[in-house]
Design a protein that fits this description.
By secondary structure, the protein is an alpha/beta fold. The protein has 13 helices and 25 strands. Bound molecules: shikimate-3-phosphate.
């Protein structure tokens, strides 16, 4: 159980753990590359450890010492058929990206995860990979885990994705790297582009045009060193804490500010929050900066359209922050929230209401009326790391004490979260 007391002030200079999306990809691409890949700043959260365990099970030597990881890549076809099922834990990124990789492999593998993974839709990757020629099965015609994959002999496709999903885009592009001809993916809005950037860093040619990405089959990856920046999705919790507790300020160093991920910065600024990027630089094809965040009085806004994929994982904590903004915040076009680690429209609403917040679910988002006085409550993370953390941040602005039950879920993406909160709270 995590106990959070109302904070008088948030202050300090901090770093957040490594980016989850980039950490997963660094291990996967390192395993498929020729030669060694050294990773620094790796996220040691449970999700990325699941990715390491899966590749070890396929015969890849991976050494991990805290946030330093060395992957001995054996080339694209250096993976071995696993002798038992691959456990992806809670990680959607692991199962969906690995589906694309396994679709290219001349062997059989089965992937399975926890209760949350068992409820998440897989046909979004299974359907296009089947079109390319992979044999994939799962419960409900391949919609749900366990997924059983027998790959090999793929044909490139031109795929129009119905959803803006980096996991779908990445799975198809990875399969496309070993398919005949060219593979292209077009999405309705641009999703995070870490796969495209990191493939280029590993020596792969990737063509981009708006929301379309293309790769030619038959390309190899070369091992390299990767420095992982701090995760802006983790920094988002601290940004919200500063905006919710009067008199607060924080310097969050070394945060990834890839434009496909900075919707939270745009949203906070639109709400009237003071947030500056300092010391901007580029590290391994990824923009990085320090964030100077100062408490500000916020106003409600409307979030929709192209902005949504750029802040999809931050919506739980944006909803929390909106309870302390003056006026109405409306979140639309975010139906993807329903198929995250939990149905995040339902879980945000049910948990936030326990504090006395005025929040109403809608078909594709929610409406939050501010400002409301929050009262400390007993909250359930519902096994969802971002719900646990978002509610802990609400606890900093709520009177009395807040208890987060099932707080072990937080380790999925932010090990050390509770200690960091304590360090910056006065
Ligand atoms: C991720 C993509 C996003 C995001 C998830 C991580 C990734 O999901 O929500 O936490 O690393 O590719 P989508 O694939 O639905 O965009």
């Amino acid at each position: 159980m995590l106990r959070v007391k109302q904070a008088k002030q948030i202050e300090g200079t901090v770093r957040v753990p490594g980016d989850k999306s980039i950490s997963h990809r660094a291990v996967m691409f390192g395993a498929l590359a020729n030669g060694t890949t050294q990773i620094e700043g790796f996220l040691t959260g449970a999700d990325c450890l699941s990715t390491i365990a899966c590749f070890r099970k396929m015969g890849i030597e991976i050494e991990q010492k805290e946030d330093r990881v060395t992957v001995q890549g054996k080339g694209w076809y250096g993976l071995q058929e696993p002798s038992s099922y691959l456990d992806v834990g809670n990680s959607g990124t692991t199962i969906r990206l690995m589906s694309g990789i396994l679709a290219t492999q001349p062997f059989h593998a089965v992937m399975e995860g926890d209760e949350s993974i068992a409820k998440r839709p897989m046909r979004r990757v299974v359907a296009p990979l089947r079109q390319m020629g992979a044999k994939i099965d799962g419960r409900k015609e391949g919609e749900y885990t366990p997924l059983s994959i027998r790959g090999g002999d793929l044909q490139g496709i031109e795929y129009q994705s119905p959803v803006a999903s980096a996991q779908v885009k990445s799975a198809i592009l990875l399969a496309g790297l070993q398919a005949k001809g060219v593979t292209s993916v077009t999405e309705p809005h641009l999703s995070r582009d870490h796969t495209e950037r990191m493939l280029q860093a590993f020596g792969v040619q990737v063509e981009r045009d708006g929301c379309t990405v293309k790769v030619k089959g038959g390309q190899e990856l070369q091992g390299r060193s990767i420095k992982v920046p701090g995760d802006i999705s983790s920094a988002a919790f601290l940004i919200a804490a500063v905006m919710m507790v009067p008199g607060s300020s924080l310097l969050i160093e070394n945060v990834g500010v890839n434009p496909t991920r900075t919707g939270i910065i745009d949203a906070v600024r639109q709400m009237g929050g003071k947030l500056e990027l300092v010391n901007e630089r580029v590290v391994n094809e990824e923009p990085v900066a320090d964030l100077r965040v100062t408490h500000s009085e916020l106003t409600g806004i409307e979030l929709s359209g192209d902005l949504i994929p750029r802040l999809i994982d931050e919506i739980p904590v944006i909803a929390v922050m909106a309870t302390q903004a003056t006026g109405r915040t409306v979140i639309r076009d975010a139906q993807e929230l329903k198929v995250k680690e939990t149905d995040r429209i339902a879980t945000v609403v049910s948990q936030l209401r326990k504090f006395g917040a005025n929040v109403t679910p809608t078909e594709d988002g929610m409406i939050i009326e501010g400002k409301t006085v929050l009262t400390g409550a007993t909250i359930d993370s519902m096994g969802d790391h971002r719900i646990g953390m978002a509610m802990a941040i609400a606890g900093l602005a709520a009177s009395g004490e807040t208890v987060i039950e099932n707080d072990q879920a937080i380790d999925v993406s932010f090990p050390g979260f509770a200690a960091l909160l304590e360090q910056i709270s006065r």
